[in-house]
Design a protein that fits this description.
six-stranded antiparallel beta sheet, mainly beta, 11 strands
């Protein structure tokens, strides 16, 4: 009888361990995933608050993402979200390094304005415009760039030159089809 109880105890222990290690439902991520498929998404945190942008910008839509290459020299990325408060829009322009396209680019608004990064928060009374400069800057890493898809990651700090307020854009990602 004692042997029977020890087997029963062992079986019960195995069942408890198995049940406790079952797959638990994971919470939905705050940001759209990092992809390279042309999903037409952009996501980032503004001072820790998530902003997700989905869909193609253009036509009758003033929200969504858009990106590409201008004259074979300048990469542009645009995103405008209606689901954030305040509404955020972001624009990034930077020159392509033809010798190493898939690299990390510094975002710091050089004196020639070939690279420009701005975030507009569209808050009450017209909103605030934040830009990178030589002190407040960041980086963008291209993961894919071809004739159909541009994708990558980014982060930067930007300042409103009128108020002196600095914002921190972190964990940025974009995946845009042309």
């Amino acid at each position: 009888m004692k042997k029977y109880h020890s087997h029963l105890f062992l079986l019960f222990s195995v069942l408890v361990l198995t049940a406790s290690s079952c797959h638990k439902e994971e919470p939905e991520p705050d940001l759209v995933p990092i992809t390279t498929t042309g999903a037409n998404t952009m996501g980032f945190y503004v001072d820790g608050v998530p902003v997700n942008i989905k869909g193609k910008h253009g036509g009758l839509s003033s929200v969504g993402v858009k990106g590409g290459i201008i004259n074979g020299e300048i990469i542009y990325l645009l995103g405008s979200a209606e689901n954030s408060n305040p509404i955020n829009s972001i624009s990034i322009y930077l020159p392509i390094d033809q010798s190493n396209v898939l690299k990390e680019y510094k975002l710091n608004n050089d004196i020639w304005h070939y690279d420009e990064v701005s975030v507009i928060d569209h808050s009450d009374l017209g909103g605030n415009i934040y830009k990178t400069d030589s002190i407040y800057y960041g980086f963008l890493k291209l993961l894919k760039l071809d004739s159909k898809i541009i994708s990558g990651t980014f982060y930067f700090d930007a300042i409103d030159s009128e108020t002196g307020k600095v914002i921190h854009i972190t964990d940025g990602r974009f995946d845009i089809s042309n």
